[in-house]
Amino acid sequence: MGALVILGPFLLSFSTALKTPQQFATSSPLSLPAPFTFENFARLFGAEHNFVSPIAVTVQMTLVILVVQLGCSILAAYAFARLQFWGRDVIFWAYLATMMIPAVTTIVPLYGMLTSAGLRNTFWALVLPTLFGSPYAIFLLREYFRAVPDDLEAAARIDGCGTLRVLWYVVLPHSRPIIATLTVITVVTQWNNFLWPRVITTGDDWAVLTVATAALQSQYNGNWTLVMAATTIALLPLLLIYLLFQRRIVDSIAIGGFK
């Protein structure tokens, strides 16, 4: 029953996307499409709406943030976990405390900073606020890095490995499950990001998928089949990513519980 409640909205969205507006208006929302139609998807990718551009912008934004944010988080987490320097723990806990601040409170200052820098309604405005690391990712990675046996690192240094080689050849291979989990979390978070792209961009040039779908809903408020088609398009990549990484996610939970 719980699974049905959770999966119900997704199934209803997909079912509605395969209906014509006439079918949706004259039949129960829970009824199956009869017949199935892909007219709504064709309209989205036609010249009228051109959903290719929002998808391309969203993919670019997600990939850039994923690569740079994960890389910066790994370097910071390794420094906090394995290196010794003055004020390490104070800096870490102060940085981690920023997770307690609601993200919405930083929107106005960020908007003012990026607007003053002339970056409003640009690609860099979309990615810069979350590009250089995540407190949540750094925290999880730090805990995993601390669990790597010290003997492995000592042996690698005896063999002549420097800090970066120890990280690459010793620490990261033992942390693949948590990195895969953070990859999924980062992709889902950025793919579904709505508020910041809506604030910092205008027009269609840099509209992401969530903003384009919201604009479609307000513009075609009565045509729910078209809106559900856009929602289905936004959901499918996330489902595929989860299917690809689900084993790694389960491994990270199991290993974390064992420790």
From TrEMBL:
GO cellular component, one term: plasma membrane
Annotated PROSITE patterns: ABC_TM1
Record SUPFAM superfamilies: MetI-like
Family to which the UniProt record says this protein belongs: Belongs to the binding-protein-dependent transport system permease family.
Protein name: Carbohydrate ABC transporter permease
Signal sequence segment: none
Major subcellular location class: membrane
Topology of the protein relative to the lipid bilayer: Multi-pass membrane protein
Biological process terms in GO annotation: transmembrane transport
Domain ABC transmembrane type-1: 55-245
TM regions (residue ranges): 55-80, 92-111, 123-145, 166-188, 224-245
UniProt keywords, alphabetically: Cell membrane, Membrane, Transmembrane, Transmembrane helix, Transport
Locations listed in the record: Cell membrane
UniProt xrefs under Gene3D superfamilies: MetI-like (1.10.3720.10)
